[in-house]
């Protein structure tokens, strides 16, 4: 479980991106942060894996303040997926997926077979492992991004607008796949989007933020639907 305990982020220029945010993202659930551009979604997400540190308040991972964990150790337990998958262009898909296992010193064969298994998990043909990122469509690259984030089986998955740049039909299938995957994997997922329909579809709970970084509402998506 991830806990935000009165978390504030003020950037050096004085911008308050996140303002006294308190909420919980339970294990086994998808917690969605939704709101307009600039409301502090990405900042909130990046404070979890310490790409950014909070100015005030604490973020706890299963009760342990992340600020006390050194970033490399912390990130071993946290998969991170961004909008344009961010794959290494000169590495084959299989090696892209195995990035973290290689860093962790896994045996090369074991890392590659894990990557192949994950390709199937995210709905891609394992033969794609031998291709390079430019040979894949945008939607396929996002699937690879998800596979890469899952490679070392981290308990936490952070997803920042992962499906926003793909066309609507592909987006729908990626959303369905994520719901299916989460039913198997039971991760703590924090998912950021500006799209309220996506938030309602994916979220077990939905945190609605407004510009200035304040929590407007923490809702069960079924309630949002009926409003
Ligand atoms: P969102 O992801 O919801 O679009 P962000 O977390 O990216 O929002 O940004 C929240 C606010 O913080 C915005 O006003 C943005 O301009 C500001 N901001 C983001 N990064 C920085 C930075 N490095 N320095 C100053 N202000 C920033
Ligand atoms: P989408 O409609 O999902 O965006 P694309 O039209 O980009 O898909 O690609 C369709 C198919 O062609 C995909 O299976 C993709 O892997 C393959 N493909 C796209 N670009 C290349 C390329 N440069 N070399 C080889 N195969 C490619």
Automatic annotation (TrEMBL):
Keywords: ATP-binding, Nucleotide-binding, Transport. GO terms for molecular function: ABC-type quaternary ammonium compound transporting activity; ATP binding; ATP hydrolysis activity. It is an enzyme of class 7 (translocase). Residues 2-227 form the ABC transporter domain. Its EC number is 7.6.2.9. Belongs to the ABC transporter superfamily. This is ABC-type quaternary amine transporter. It comes from Nonomuraea cavernae.
């Amino acid at each position: 479980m991830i806990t935000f305990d009165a978390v504030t982020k003020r950037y050096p220029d004085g911008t308050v991106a996140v303002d006294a945010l308190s909420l919980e993202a339970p294990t086994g659930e998808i917690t969605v942060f939704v709101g307009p551009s600039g409301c502090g979604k990405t900042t909130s997400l990046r404070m979890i894996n310490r790409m950014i540190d909070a100015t005030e308040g604490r973020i706890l991972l299963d009760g342990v303040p992340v600020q006390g964990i050194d970033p490399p150790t912390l990130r071993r337990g946290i998969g991170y997926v961004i909008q344009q998958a961010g794959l290494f262009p000169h590495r084959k898909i299989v090696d892209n997926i195995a990035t973290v296992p290689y860093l962790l010193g896994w045996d090369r064969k074991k890392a590659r077979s894990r990557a192949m298994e994950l390709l199937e998990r995210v709905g891609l043909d394992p033969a794609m492992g031998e291709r390079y990122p430019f040979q894949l469509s945008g939607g396929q690259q996002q699937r690879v991004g998800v596979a890469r984030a899952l490679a070392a089986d981290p308990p936490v998955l952070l997803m920042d607008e992962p499906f926003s740049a793909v066309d609507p039909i592909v987006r729908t299938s990626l959303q369905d796949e994520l719901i299916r995957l989460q039913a198997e994997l039971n991760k703590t997922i924090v998912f950021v989007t500006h799209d309220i329909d996506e938030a309602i579809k994916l979220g077990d709970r939905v945190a609605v933020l407004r510009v200035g970084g304040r929590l407007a509402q923490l809702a069960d998506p079924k309630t949002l639907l009926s409003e």
